[in-house]
Design goal:
- Chain B: This is tRNA(adenine(34)) deaminase.
- Chain B: Keywords: Hydrolase, Metal-binding, tRNA processing, Zinc.
- Chain B: It catalyses: adenosine(34) in tRNA + H2O + H(+) = inosine(34) in tRNA + NH4(+).
- Chain B: Its EC number is 3.5.4.33.
- The structure holds 2 protein chains of 2 kinds.
- By secondary structure, chain A is an alpha+beta fold.
- Chain A contains 11 helices and 9 strands.
- In chain A, helix 10 links the parallel strand 7 and strand 8.
- Chain B is an alpha/beta fold.
- Chain B has one domain: Cytidine Deaminase, domain 2, CATH 3.40.140.10.
- Helices cover 39% and strands 15% of the residues of chain B.
- In chain B, helix 1 runs parallel beside helix 5 and helix 5 packs antiparallel against helix 6.
- The radius of gyration of chain B is 16 Å and the shape is globular.
- The relative contact order of chain B is 0.14.
- The chains are: A alpha+beta, B alpha/beta.
- At the A-B interface, helix 1, helix 7 and helix 10 of A face helix 3 and helix 4 of B.
- The structure holds zinc ion (ZN) (2 copies).
- One zinc ion binds next to helix 10 of chain A.
């Protein structure tokens, strides 16, 4: 098993699991500094080793006359627990005894990150440990457990099961939960590093053209296809000439006027349309191409460049967009969504756009400007900053709990000795508010 | 939850949309947007037909609503959706300022309002919104199961096992059971 690390755990009513988890994440400095992704963050009492289970408040066998069935210690079914709504119907009298809530045990963090006094103080502000406003439910007993847990992930499924029995529920994952294989990252980097600057510049121009029309904030994106795809299966055998080509480009058009002529740029500020963020639009353009590739030529025109389809705006709005959008010659046949395509965005995308990129199966994304308060890709949070100023910390492209992952880079230009890059940056239009979601 | 029957009535309409999705070989997720008791938009999943992985029921319905109405309308509008909104939809809904979201079952693959992440209430520049889960949860899950069985029947033999595994993926595992209504 190797090294062990002492961790805190606390039992909480199941319905408060997210609230409490978010609270400790927010309140404990360097919460994620030791990634214990192989340990279940939340575990049902029934799955804990017996010596831990008996220490839980729920195993205290004081009588609970109203609801014996939710006593979690007896729940040995590995299937999904059936939900029983603990709420009483409106108007019924308050229960005479508090029913025992279904509980779950939260593995908080290694004990060196926070003292038990401080953690108790933090947790005691969470809803389940406070008296409820209606006084119908008594607060759940707050009891901190300390336990040794394996620091490193198991290398076999067998090890995972045995640690689960002796220490804490442990997961074995064949794929690496801590990031992509270094060889994959370095090959990807060598492929994109010389061209990323060019594509980001194009992304910026695409956004700028829309901005000049009063349609958007000036953000833009470029979708690129590369010979041999990104998984490199065929490439080693066939050292033919490598190529890459632009599949689609789109500018942010959140203020594009509605078809009835209302919501023109003049009245725009109140009515922003996130469906027309640059990434959303470009993804829709690729979908249109896939539809066009599969339909007869007479419909092609209609699919690729008809009137703007409000509010998705998946048809080109500017000549620059039309240059890439109005043909299917720049996209391979038989592709699936945006699998194996690359996404270059002028700014760090918002949560909606980043997840849209994951739904579309992008494997690589490069962005230019970091959006400190709205960007979904950077995983690090600046310590000691309030609200969203320190960043959202989602790291959305590599979340072990999501079903698709990809590689992300923030592109930083090397500044020439004569400072030319710096001048260009300063010469651009004044940046929009940091509050803006891209 | 107050006025449970009121909410159930709209969720039944959302389930009808999900059933429509099932009939057209789309993942059965359906939704309705409700303002002042009136349904102002309906949507069903459309990712397979559109070849666009972002055409979820919620975004399809928003697209329909925005053709006629200003985006400001969402501040007075509630969403009823059979499956918890995903991370993408949860964020888009927040950016539009949705008033509240009512859903059936959790989505433990990419749920954005409690299933995996809590995009509706996390720190953000946009106003948070309340969510209420568990309305006709069993019905929502049954529709998804029917879909996976239906897909399995179409799949050639060797793929059967893999496809069959999918059917439980949507069910809550680590975070079980909807939050109290
Ligand atoms: Zn966005
Ligand atoms: Zn969605």
């Amino acid at each position: 098993m190797g090294e062990l690390v002492d961790c805190y755990a606390v039992e909480i009513p199941i319905k408060s699991s997210n609230v409490v988890l978010n609270l400790v994440k927010r309140s404990i400095r360097d919460f994620d500094s030791i990634p214990l992704l192989h340990l279940r963050r939340l575990a049902k009492p029934a799955y804990l080793p017996a010596h831990l289970r008996v220490q839980l408040p729920s195993s205290d066998n004081s009588p609970s006359p109203t609801d014996a069935s939710t006593s979690t210690g007896s729940d040995t079914s590995p299937s999904i627990s059936r939900s029983t709504s603990p709420a009483s119907p409106t108007g019924s009298p308050p229960p005479t005894a508090t029913p025992r809530p279904q509980t779950i045990v939260l593995l908080v963090c290694p004990i060196h990150l926070v003292s038990s006094e401080r953690l108790t103080a933090i947790l005691s502000t969470a809803a389940p440990f406070l008296p409820s406003p209606t006084l119908q439910v008594s607060p759940y007993p707050l009891k901190l457990l300390t336990l040794p847990a394996p620091l490193h992930p198991p290398t076999t499924g067998q090890a995972a099961s045995s640690w689960t029995a002796t220490h804490w529920p442990t997961v074995y994952k064949r794929n690496n939960p801590f990031g992509a294989h270094p060889a994959i990252v370095s090959r990807a980097e060598s492929e994109i590093k010389d061209v990323a600057g060019k594509w980001l510049q194009l992304a910026q121009s695409v956004g700028q053209v829309c901005k000049e029309q009063g349609w958007g904030i000036g953000a833009g994106c470029v979708i690129v296809e590369r010979s041999g795809g990104n998984n490199g299966k065929e490439r080693s055998q066939t050292p033919t000439k490598k190529w890459e080509r632009v599949v689609a480009v789109a500018g942010d058009a959140r203020w594009y006027g509605r078809p009835d002529g209302t919501n023109t740029a003049a009245t725009s500020q109140v009515e922003s349309n996130p469906l027309a963020h640059a990434v959303m639009r470009a993804i829709a353009m690729v979908a249109n191409k896939r539809l066009a590739l599969g339909s007869d030529p007479s419909k092609k025109e209609q699919l690729l460049s008809s009137e703007p389809d409000y509010p998705f705006l998946s048809k080109p709005l500017t000549p620059l967009e039309a240059r890439y959008a109005s043909t299917t010659d720049n996209l391979s046949h038989n592709g699936y969504l945006c699998l194996d395509l690359e996404l270059y965005v002028s700014h760090e995308p918002c949560v909606g756009c980043a997840m849209a990129a994951l739904h579309s199966r992008f494997g690589r994304l490069v962005f230019g400007r970091r959006m400190q308060r709205t960007g979904a890709l950077v995983a690090e949070v600046q310590a000691g900053k309030a609200f969203v100023d320190g960043g959202l910390g989602y790291g959305l492209f590599w979340r072990p709990e999501l079903n698709w992952k990809g590689l992300v880079w923030q592109f930083q230009r090397e500044v020439d000795t004569d400072g030319s890059e710096v001048c260009e940056e300063n010469g651009a239009d004044e940046p929009f508010s940091e509050e803006t979601s891209v | 939850m107050e006025k449970r029957e009121y909410h159930e009535w709209y969720m039944r309409e959302a389930i009808k949309m999900a059933e429509g999705a099932l009939r057209s070989d789309e993942t059965p997720v359906g939704c309705v947007f409700v303002r002042d008791g009136k349904i102002i938009g309906r949507g069903m999943n459309d990712t397979n037909k559109s070849l666009n992985g972002t055409r979820h029921a919620e975004l399809v319905a928003i697209g329909q609503i925005l053709q006629k109405q200003p985006a400001t309308i969402f501040k007075e509008t509630d969403l009823y959706v059979t499956v918890e909104p995903c991370v993408m939809c949860a964020s888009i809904l927040r950016q539009y300022g949705i008033r509240a979201v009512y859903f059936g079952c959790y989505n433990d693959r990419f749920g954005g309002t409690g299933g995996v992440l809590t995009i509706h209430e996390d720190p953000s520049v946009d106003k948070p919104y309340p969510v209420y889960g568990g309305i006709f949860r069993e019905e929502a899950i049954m529709l998804l199961r029917r879909f996976y069985v239906q897909e399995n029947d179409k799949a050639p033999e060797p793929r059967q096992k893999k496809a069959r595994e999918l059917k439980t993926e949507i069910l809550p595992s680590e975070i079980a059971g909807p939050r109290e209504l």
